[in-house]
Amino acid sequence: RWKQRRHVQAVRLVVADELHLIGGEAGPVLEVVVSRMRYMAAQLDAPVRVVGLAASLANARDVAEWLGAGAAGCFNFHPAVRPVPLEVHVQGFDIAHVPQRILAMARPLYFALARFAAADRPALVFAPSAKQAQLTAVDVLAAAKADGLPDRFLHVDAPALEAHLAKIGDAAVRHLAERGVGVLHEHLSA
Asked: I need a labelling partner for 107 at 20 to 30 A (CA). Which of 41, 43, 59, 152 fits?
């Protein structure tokens, strides 16, 4: 249908955000949109620039190649260039089925957080979807409670936290925050 839509043919810049979700539920949509734009550009002999953005990619060069960017067009920033120091810890799981792999990651994630995010050291965990972000946070708190440390990740006084908790409308997200675990995803509102 793009042949009948002049405004689609006029597109010269595509910003593909959240490319780290390519392996998740949104992956096929991202792949189709970018692939169709590249196909259309080739058919029209009119270049389309694709800018891909991702939070964290293990295969950034492969994704850049798929987007049509050569090695010179791939900017994968090393953690050392951050204004705040960052330690990266990666643990792989050799389970092909995504739901089973995510379930298998719950306990090892908790142990990694307990090991690397001790005391006042924050940790950031990426999840493939908004739903999985919340489920992962619940799993982490359940593991902490099972260890007899329900407040293991809470490093702030209750009075300092109360003002912020009052602003959280979602009861599940508020419960997580009460225990020191925050959740951030696109479906949250201010």
From this structure: 59
Per the prediction, the chain carries an average pLDDT of 85
Three-class HEC string of 31-82: HHHHHHHHHHHHHHCCCCEEEECCCCCCCHHHHHHHHCCCHHHCCCCCHHHC
Q: At residue 154, what is the residue type?
A: L
* pLDDT computed for residue 119 by the predictor: 63
Q: Three-state DSSP class for 14?
A: strand
Q: Which H or E run contains 166?
A: none
Residue 119 class from Cβ within 10 Å (0-12 exposed, 13-18 middle, 19+ buried)?
Answer: exposed
Residue 173, Cβ neighbours under 10 Å: how many? 19
CA torsion 122-124-130-132 (nearest 10°) is -100
Tokens matching residue 166 = 């009052």
Beta bridge partners of 50: 14
Which helix (H) or strand (E) segment holds residue 120: the answer is none
At 140, is the secondary structure helix, strand, or coil?
A: helix
Q: How far apart are CA 141 and CA 72, in angstroms?
A: 43
- Residue 42 scores a pLDDT above 60: yes
